[in-house]
Write a structure and sequence with these properties.
Shape: elongated
Distance between the termini: 29 Å
Strand order of the largest sheet: 2-1-4-3
Structural class: alpha+beta
Strand content: 5-15%
């Protein structure tokens, strides 16, 4: 139906009539082909990724009840497909874009779909996306803490805070600082929030974090080691994060 992704919305709207899932899948597939065309010329591997994207779209549309299938808003589907061409090599991010387009075609989910979700996905790394999924699947059990490091080499009471550390799969003494950037990004994007002054009543949330030897990792071979204070924190998905979860996961 669509000859070019970039043609005027007035021309596109003439062909947008709430088609059945197969027809809608073909329409979106055509948009993908136009948007991703140059990638296929660069590398044969990309043809496989493009096909995975198309198949993912069709599978998602096929799972929508016919009575709930609607034409996705152009201001969602256009930017989503255009942006996704740079992320099709990453399974987690590719699937997020697929789910965003599919959700925007589902009448029951249209109230949770937001244009900002395109930009949010673009600002996630594959590790960010994996960790966000982990938090969404473990909202009642995942733990979060912060560390306060007091410098014993001086007597002025100075300290440094390490915020925020989650018990993500694979986090350990060697990489916990790197995983802090994941939490920082999810907070920056407004998907989660952390509270230093509150803690969970379920102390088992912090068992894994307390088992990590932060002291050895932080102090290393320092002649005068830091005194480290472990602080339990409370975290939750924001309203935006909950909508993002239901839309793209």
């Amino acid at each position: 139906m669509f000859k070019e992704l970039g043609q005027a919305s007035a021309d596109i709207s003439k062909e947008v009539l709430i088609p059945p899932a197969k027809e809608l899948g073909n329409v979106l597939g055509d948009m993908v082909s136009v948007s991703f065309g140059w990638l296929a010329k660069i590398k044969i591997k990309q043809e496989h990724n493009i096909q995975l994207f198309k198949e993912g779209l069709q599978d998602g549309l096929d799972n929508i009840k016919p009575e709930n299938l609607v034409q996705p808003p152009l201001h969602i589907v256009g930017p989503a497909i255009k942006a996704s061409k740079y992320y099709i090599e990453t399974d987690e991010l590719r699937q997020m874009f697929i789910n965003l387009v599919v959700s925007s075609s589902d009448r029951t989910k249209q109230t949770t779909v937001h244009p900002s979700f395109v930009e949010i996905i673009k600002q996630l790394s594959s590790v960010d996306a994996t960790c966000f999924r982990y938090l969404c699947e473990n909202t009642k059990t995942a733990g979060c803490c912060s560390l306060r490091l007091y410098d014993t080499s001086v007597n002025d009471g100075s300290y440094r805070d390490f915020k925020y550390i989650f018990d993500f799969p694979g986090v350990d003494t060697e990489n916990f600082v790197s995983y802090m950037t994941v939490a920082d990004n999810l907070i920056r994007l407004g998907l989660i929030e952390c509270i230093d002054t509150s803690t969970s009543s379920d102390k088992s949330r912090y068992t894994k974090l307390r088992s990590i030897d932060f002291i050895s990792s932080v102090n290393g071979s320092r002649a005068k080691p830091f005194n480290i204070e472990f602080n339990e924190c409370f975290w939750s998905l924001t309203s935006l994060g909950s909508s993002f979860k239901s839309t793209v996961l």
